[in-house]
Structures are given as structure tokens and as C-alpha cells.
Amino acid sequence: MAVTIEELDATVRAFYEGRGESQKAAQAALNQFKEDPDAWLLVDKILQDATYPQTKYLGLQVLDNVILTRWKVLPKEQCQGIRNFVVNFIIQSSSSDESLKTQRTLLNKLNLVLVSILKQEWPHNWPTFINEIISACHTSLSICENNMAILRLLSEEVFDFSADQMTSAKTKNLKTVMCAEFSSIFQLCNEVLNSATQPSLIKATLETLLRFFNWIPLGYIFETPIIDTLRTRFLEMPEFRNVTLKCLTEIGGLQTGQNNAYDEKLVQMFTEVLTTISKIIPLSLDLKTTYNSSNSKDQEFIQNLALFLTNFFGVHLNVRLSLIQI
Known about the structure:
Helix 16 (about 240-250) runs parallel beside helix 19. The chain has a domain at about 215-325. Helices cover about 75% and strands about 0% of the residues. It is built from 20 helices and no strands.
């Protein structure tokens, strides 16, 4: 495979920006490159030296395919090398607010590649991953923000999309490990929500928590101050209120078991959330008229309010009776 990064850059550019025969020739060359079993060996140079963004995305596509199809037959030292390279490149690309913004698309793809590696390696060959990612969060706010995105993606892969991509035994094992290690993740999220001031980090943490609420043990939700934190710190803030209300909607739709142990907490959450929302949307407001004249974020908030109500009452009929008696 005799190709330089400069030649690969030119070929990718010709594919995306060229026309006619030059584009067809570029497509054929790129297909040949992707089919080369040794193409992945160039990925580190591609990510470090390519100047055309789509070339870097091509490199990650090649690497992800190797992880999905050949990981188990690669020598252990090569797997370790790939793992270390991806982790270090993610840290480098998220080490400052500026790099986090300018490298956002590349980071999103790198994060997905890391999750592909985790599905192969964690926990048996990488038992310290959760501790490592949490420790890294304390080194930099921008790294913490990106690590929240990684934790969110991992949660989605394990709890939302796993049925199509992993065996049931593998899925069960990952769910067990993630639940067992969740206390440190939850502590990190709490630290951010109680002390962070950077809006993008707060929003990333709220979006990550949103993916957690449908599987974490109920005690984390109803026996900690997290509901009050969401309601009092973020529900009234325009930049956070939509994702916060989505979090509260997720909580309101949880099945809490036959003993109804958390009914009192649910009633309290419902009434206090609506009290807070009444400060944002006065009860006297004509929602139909207001909705049509509102901006997209305000319309989304009204839609989320409707989902909060229907989700809550759709699951908790017995709680509805308690509310009627209040």
C-alpha cells in the first residue's frame, strides 16, 4: 500500500469536490484503500498529518471497521496500541475549550471509535476504564465535557442499542458492571451540577444524566437531592430548561414497583415542578396562541411540558388519585 497522506488528502478532496471522471476515479481509489487489510496501519498518520477533515473521518471509518471485524484476531500489543492512541488523541483534541469547539465533529467520531473499543475490551481487559475517565474529568473542564459525551454514548450502546449489536450475555455483563460502578459516575455528575458554571459542561452533564435515568437504581433518583437540584438550579434557566424537563419527564415515567415506595416523592416532584413551571408559563396564558407566536425553543418547552404530564399520568394512575385529593 504505497500511498502518502498528501496523496490520500488529494484523493478524498477529489471525491468530495470533484466532478465527473475525476470523482469516479477518486471513489474507486478510496474503495480500494478501504478494502486494503493494512489500511488501518496508516490511521495514526492520517489523524496527525491529514489537512482535509474528510480524510481524517475516512481514517476513523477504516479503524472502526477493524475494531468491529478483526479485533479478536489482532495481536494484543496492537489492540493495546490502538486503544492508547485513541485515548491520547481524544485527550489531546479535548484539552482546551478552543480545541473542543474546533475539533467537535472529529471528537464525536473519535468518541464512537472509543466506545467500539470498549465494547470489545471492557471490563475484562480494561477494568479501570470508569476510574480512568472520572480521574481525567478532574484535569480539565473541557476534557470533563467530552468525557460526559463518552459516558452518554456508552450508556446508549449498553442500554438502548445493545440488542442489535451484542450477545445477550455480553449485554447483561456490561449492564451489571455499569450499574456496579455507577456510584462514582453519579458523584461526578453531582459535582458538576452543584459547582460548575460553564454552560456547555452543565448541558453535557444534563444530557448524559438523561440517558442514565431509565436504568440506574431508583435510590439514586429518589433518595438523593438530584430531583431538587434539577428543579431549583436548572428548570427556570432558558439554556437548560428543555433538557432539564426531559430529565424530569424520564423520572416521572419510571416504573417504581408494586409497593409504591416512592409515590410520596413522585407527588412532591410533580407538584413542585408544576409550581416552578407556573413561573415560566403563567396559568392564565393561552397556550395555543402563545405556542404559535413562540420561538422554536419555547415551542419545544411547551411540547416537553405536555410530554411530562402525559408520561407521568400514563404510568402513575394511583398517584393521580393522590393529586386529586391534594
